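Input protein
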Amino acid sequence: MLPYVRNLLTNKRHNNRSVFISMLISNIVILLLPLVIGFFLYTKVEQIMMANASRSNLAMLEQLRLTMDNHFKEVNQLAQQIVFNPKIDQLLSNDSTEDRYSEIEFIRYLKTYQKIDSGFIKDYYVYFQGSNTILSPSIRTDSQTFYDRYYKYENLSYEQWKKELLESYHNMHYLPTARILRDGGMGMMNNQDRMPINVITYVHSLPVREVSDIRGSLIILLDEQQIKDRLKQIEAANQSAIYIINDKQNVILSTTDEYELSSALFDKLTNPTGLFDYSLNGKDMMVSYTTTDEAGWKYISVMLKDHYMKPVYSIKMTAFGLFILCLVVGVGFAYLAAYRNYSPVKHMVTAIMQGKRTVTRPSGDEYEFIRESIEGSIIEEKQLRDTLSQQASVVRANFLSRLIRGQVDLSQIQSTESLGFLNLTPFVYSSYAVMVIQVDDASHFTHNQSEKQWALIRFIISNIGMDMVNEGHIGYDVDLDRDRLAFLINLDDDGQGTAADELKFIAHSLKQVVETRFKLILTVAISKVHESLEEIGEGYEEALAALDYKMIMGQSVIICYDDIKDTELHYHYPIETEAQLMNLVKSGDFENVEKLLDNIYELNFSSDKLTPELGTCIFFNMVSTLLKIMNASNIGYGGMEEEGIFDPIKQIQSSGTAQEMHEKTKRFYKQLTRLLQSERSGHSDLLLADIKRFIDGRCTDPNLGLAMISSHCGKTPQYISTFFKKASGHNITDYISRIRIDQAKILMENKALTNLQIAQMVGYMNDLAFIRVFKKIEGVTPGKYRESLSDDTVYEAETT
């Protein structure tokens, strides 16, 4: 370029070289003016970026503070509900462990407080110094057992833990993170529950208003991992180290041990929030912090200043590079602009030749060359327009989708010009309606339900439906989903009010043709007839609302919005019915359970007056009854699993119709009834064996009777008597007598023993009762029986 500029300046055809130089200098000056302005703007932008980076860092800490404040409110709420519980003063004043009823009641109260737990609180318990008892939502034990088996602090012995945590004064005090060892007490049945955990301990001495007379403590264990997860979000976002310190400048928790915070740094944390430079380990750092009001903690973010300033440095280098680039390019542009002022045609031809990749300059007129180039550009533009026109169908579908939802400015769409480019006919009639078609089942049409097949299904329904609609009306189809489409219909009712009947006729005809010829099962929902285009969005919502009633009315139906307005806002499932259902399930009578479920279904769904929402609530209530029975019977979910995890709520929600929900509910109850029958059978065998074993071991005891046996089994005498009769087929008194008589017959072989002695040895107080029972069972008196034994002996001796 430089030789060409030199030739240009010395060319005699340009006799006024100073004009070219002046124009070049003027262009360079014009170029430098925005560059100077840009430099000043850059300095402002750099300041703004630094301020934004500071605000962003503080905003992250503030977000962490707000999140933690919410969790601290949960902790304070839990602590207040426990320490102000009326039962706690009674338990604190009790110096013995005999008041078990109050302790059980208090444990029940503790279980109710678990509802406010969001995962931030790992566990909590209350220590009562007088009785040396610890109560938690799941256990009651003494402090030594609790420390050894449940929460053993790694850095504290039992005596230190008891003295410093349980018996010292603490007022809403948070202790630094500590590692707890768990040996696997009750409730810790898997290996995960035995793993050591890191917790932050919240301690509040009891009673609340006492400072010196400490009689107990409330301990709440906060999950350190929950806090670390929130800290890692900030740490990953800005690659910083996060520290949490309490009001005593103790480090509660940190994400790294690389930097040790000094007291000099703590002295700079005087404001509730702030940002400052600081040197740690010989490195320049940016320190930002904020303070929480709930616990008095400070959240500190320590980040390398180079990383903090990295975006600013990057922008600075980019701006400097752009400045140099703009300067170089601008100088070249200034030269080209000056050159174009004196040689526009030549420059234009050169540009065209570069674009056309022409080897030689045109030999003819340069203007003709320019004209031909322009004509070529026009042809290329036409081809581009043709390409755009091919996308008109996509634009049309998007427009109709927004129109049917009421998201279009209707003031501009009624003219032919406004709709012509979308290939739409203006609406000329005064009545409008929306029809939504749902494909319920396409398995008889095709087994390969791919996107291509679904597109074909929508094409078939759309073509048939539009042919029917356009016979006397104006209609457009809109694809809503893979198995759903809608018709926007502009109805010509001739002023006779027949639009609603015409819609039903179209829906019935469409459904009959599609289901008969193509084996597609359809559900059609129809909105009300509206008198203005502005109400189309409302009509679409009405059609969707009507389609929801498919759950009540089933599949393959036509649902009009006008037919569902008179709905009932209550359903039949009284407490008496629920109690009856629970009793039938517990008794194992599934036949009557099924009848009762069918009766509930018929009472609620036979009239089609129930809303889909209330219909779903009925089944949720019946599933709730199922879960109540399982909880009351201590039935685990393992026996109820079919494929995967037992989740009845999710299975009910995934059902499409009320009939499907009803069948699933009956299946749930059938599984539970059989499970209860199975467990009851196994329990009966164990109980019968236990009773017989007890009788065999105590049959010589004169006091053995129904009262002793029922006391041993923990059941009522009436229950034991009825159960034994039903399970063994014998009266329990007769069974005891039979065991005693069998032993007595063995003892009678010893002639030295009298009947009184034998009676007392087998459990009778006197020989009269023994003789009466013996004769009742054997049919003869003990004396006669002994004589028969003597005769048998003599006979055996003679034969030998």
